[in-house]
Amino acid sequence: MLITNGFDGVEIHGAHGYLIEQFLKDEVNDRTDQYGGSIENRCRFALEIVEATANEIGAHRVGIRLSPFANYNESGDSNPEALGLYMAESLNKYGILYSHMVEPRMKTAGEKCYTPHSLLPMRKAFSGTFLVAGGYGRDDGNKLSCG
């Protein structure tokens, strides 16, 4: 219905502690079925949504936002880099338009904080367009783009 009403696409919101991210993160996902436990199982729900959306409107109209390193709404993960890499690699299968990942660099609105985490491994793993967010200024963006 979105596409027939003139929208160009959809960004699946799998970040910031909302429902999809609650499946992804091991600090909040305590399920014991096929959606809990291993990283593959925890990512299953998000990937099923990506697949269904891509099948419905076309992969070229689908993006996803993820925040593997963030701990929004107490939804952290014990190994956020592995989570981010797994999702980046798995998303390649669907040929979606973009992956939009959040690096937790904002302490408060307008105030950056130091973080040891980097999205560069995820950028290298994802073959499509890769968007980033998280307190980047011009110098930060230029440094990241140079690897």
Automatic annotation (TrEMBL):
InterPro entries to which the protein is assigned, alphabetical: Aldolase_TIM, OxRdtase_FMN_N, Oye-like
NADH:flavin oxidoreductase/NADH oxidase N-terminal domain mapped to chain residues: 5-140
Superkingdom classification of source: Eukaryota
UniProt record similarity statement: Belongs to the NADH:flavin oxidoreductase/NADH oxidase family.
Protein's name in the database: NADH:flavin oxidoreductase/NADH oxidase N-terminal domain-containing protein
Lineage: Eukaryota, Viridiplantae, Streptophyta, Embryophyta, Tracheophyta
Keywords: Flavoprotein, FMN, NADP
Organism, scientific name: Dipteronia dyeriana
Annotated GO MF terms: FMN binding; oxidoreductase activity
